[in-house]
């Protein structure tokens, strides 16, 4: 699994791009990246378009990231197009608590802008 984090501009959501398999061996790296992202800014978008497998530990990492973002007054959105992963999000009920988008531009536009400190 590969995880990268980026922010296009100050005040914009932090994008966590994930690719490969998110499983018991790799989910902790995703959880660590989500903790850092939530600490840097409360609006986080997790781009799962490059993920081809997500198990329960990966789902747990997403819930962890959501909780961290909400603790900071923000939110976490997911971008996903993989039919099987979308099905898992639906079956587990996570699609009801996470904002799920098919497009990154739609996901970043849907999040409210963050307030600048000061």
Architecture blueprint of SSEs:
Blueprint: E1 2-7, E2 14-22, H1 27-40, E3 43-54, H2 56-71, E4 75-79, H3 83-92, H4 94-97, E5 99-101, H5 104-110
Parallel strand pairs: 2-3, 3-4, 4-5
Antiparallel strand pairs: 1-2
Helix pairs in contact: 1-2
Helix content: 40-55%
Average pLDDT rating: 91
Continuous helix count = 5
Total strands = 5
Sheet bearing the most strands, described? 5 strands, mixed
Radius of gyration: 13 Å
Order of strands, main sheet, comes to 1-2-3-4-5
N-to-C series of helices and strands: EEHEHEHHEH
Task: Give the CA-CA distance, first to last residue.
Answer: 38 Å
Envelope shape: globular
In percent terms, what proportion of residues is strand? 25-35%
- Structural class comes to alpha/beta
Which runs of at least 5 residues are low in confidence (pLDDT < 50)? 114-118
Notes on the protein architecture:
By secondary structure, this protein is of the alpha/beta class. The termini are far apart. It has a five-stranded mixed sheet with strand order 1-2-3-4-5. Strand 1 and strand 2 form a beta hairpin. It has helices at 27-40, 56-71, 83-92, 94-97, 104-110, and strands at residues 2-7, 14-22, 43-54, 75-79, 99-101. The longest helix has 16 residues, at 56-71. 43% of the residues lie in helices and 30% in strands. Helix 1 (27-40) runs parallel beside helix 2 (56-71).
